[in-house]
Amino acid sequence: xxxxxxxxxxxxxxxxxxxxxxxxxxxxxxxxxxxxxxxxxxxxxxxxxxxxxxxxxxxxxxxxxxxxxxxxxxxxxxxxxxxxxxxxxxxxxxxxxxxxxxxxxxxxxxxxxxxxxxxxxxxxxxxxxxxxxxxxxxxxxxxxxxxxxxxxxxxxxxxxxxxxxxxxxxxxxxxxxxxxxxxxxxxxxxxxxxxxxxxxxxxxxxxxxxxxxxxxxxxxxxxxxxxxxxxxxxxxxxxxxxxxxxxxxxxxxxxxxxxxxxxxxxxxxxxxxxxxxxxxxxxxxxxxxxxxxxxxxxxxxxxxxxxxxxxxxxxxxxxxxxxxxxxxxxxxxxxxxxxxxxxxxxxxxxxxxxxxxxxxxxxxxxxxxxxxxxxxxxxxxxxxxxxxxxxxxxxxxxxxxxxxxxxxxxxxxxxxxxxxxxxxxxxxxxxxxxxxxxxxxxxxxxxxxxxxxxxxxxxxxxxxxxxxxxxxxxxxxxxxxxxxxxxxxxxxxxxxxxxxxxxxxxxxxxxxxxxxxxxxxxxxxxxxxxxxxxxxxxxxxxxxxxxxxxxxxxxxxxxxxxxxxxxxxxxxxxxxxxxxxxxxxxxxxxxxxxxxxxxxxxxxxxxxxxxxxxxxxxxxxxxxxxxxxxxxxxxxxxxxxxxxxxxxxxxxxxxxxxxxxxxxxxxxxxxxxxxxxxxxxxxxxxxxxxxxxxxxxxxxxxxxxxxxxxxxxxxxxxxxxxxxxxxxxxxxxxxxxxxxxxxxxxxxxxxxxxxxxxxxxxxxxxxxxxxxxxxxxxxxxxxxxxxxxxxxxxxxxxxxxxxxxxxxx
Length: 809
Prior knowledge:
alpha+beta, eight-stranded mixed beta sheet, 22 helices
């Protein structure tokens, strides 16, 4: 044979001779066979290009081959041929002119999207191995892909049949196969795995911000089930469409009646305020409230009349806003029904403002702001009186539309119950509140359960895009970070009891994500402020030093513990939620409360906590984080400061701490942290038994504040440590993340004010900015006026605390 006449080391594998031979052998289906002539080579000489020589033969020199290739390979241009030179079959592609000894693999590479095979994965995870058939491959690389049979079995021809079955060196690299595009599998370290290979779990892109292994210490009186409907993707999609329509109608009413846009986040705050007093049937939209006119919505619309004032940075901006306000006030008083006195006062002040603008030579930014403030004080009450009836009509109209939409949603739920032949709930028991059980006994808190039988759920499609998991139902897609999707799976395993095989898991996750997306709003960053979370080190300190195991305001997406209260019992109960906090009545336990910043909700929270602590003799502790709003001061903050259950209070200055984004389950890493623009008051509300068990001593307060400071320092030093590097979190109540020395006053029943004196060291990426000298001085003055220290003994104790903090720094 020809292979005996040629030296084994005289030419590389996959050389031009073999390629030409492969082409010619493939075309020799007729009576003429084509053989490549290889002349003898001198040492160091390159092989000459052979010319095909026709050779006639009377009988076929190759055995008949059975084309048993898969359809995918045949469609990709592959066929099985016989090599007379090597006396064994090979595979040839008529599209790419490629020859391979081994059977091509399926789904490795698409020539249309990747013609050079750069993304093809080598076998065995060898990085950088060239794809078979790649242009410019060296002779050595080609030799690894295709070897002569004579090189492996030597000169002996008798063992050729057995040697064919031996593993050749070409098995070290998987050949590249151009076939039709196929869906990509999970990405592995060496590339993309084959469709049959079990995918590896993805790598976590950032630390985990939860600890679901902490058991609860919250004890409650055993309660009944919630009489509300189970979530269904069809109903949830219908609710989302109606809610979006209601938001648009709110915007249109504000523009048509008052000529202003709907205040930002006003609709979300309206939902919070209404649900505090709502006795309706829908878990989100209000339908049974008194009074009908919302106080928060009325106040916010009036605040934007006659124009919305934006934040002023420069002198020209202040001048423009002053002129626009005066012009809008004059136009409004002329076009509305106003009393003669109101019309006279507004017009006189507007004319005075115009004269001041014309005559004042070069006013400063502060002059413009003072003039604008004066004009608002003089004209604001008269403009509000003129617009009062119209604004009340807007609020009443929105509530009426909401009641109509709630009725339509309930009718859809009832129709689905009839379709599935399930029992209909009685009208008297249709209100979504927990029914008290017949037996009154104490148990550890457990997730919310629904009394209405569950219905079958439709199929929800799932796929991944980079590190995001996408769920799609009827064209409506929701996304969630892969880590948070795994978290929901863990919570579902702990909290769900009716779906052990996870057959309804995807549908319920879709309903959960769709519900919160509907509540937040259609804007990209809208509603995120209602869903923030505390930093992980703070949660760890609260659990370690104050026994906290429960969050009063959380959700399955941002919770740290597996036991928490959330806004929705129907969608969140499968993932461990205990239901709304105002319907949750514990008799013992330590709790963290970080409420959304709605005044009505915070007032209701204070009432609820005081009632619980008054009626229980067991240890109860609530550590509350609320914004330090003083101009004007919020009633909830004043009530907690004057409460008989207040034990300690810590003030964290503005811009010295951060929140974790409320949209942390979908946001990017650089958007995970939001700096607090207001101070945060941390208030300890405890009954006598709770104070005896979890007393906020000076040492415990110091350790709690250290948790804030450690976070900022470790973000710079060890950003990959999950337990301590969690970037500063979101709950508006956080301590300084810079390396500061807080001064804590721990007098009995008093408050502790954090007065950081920051240094430039230790401020890593994501930590708060350094406190300015003016801010530090202002905080110190506030501390002196609020907490004087007349005696020397407390001063000595405070010095000891400060010395220990300085040693720690």
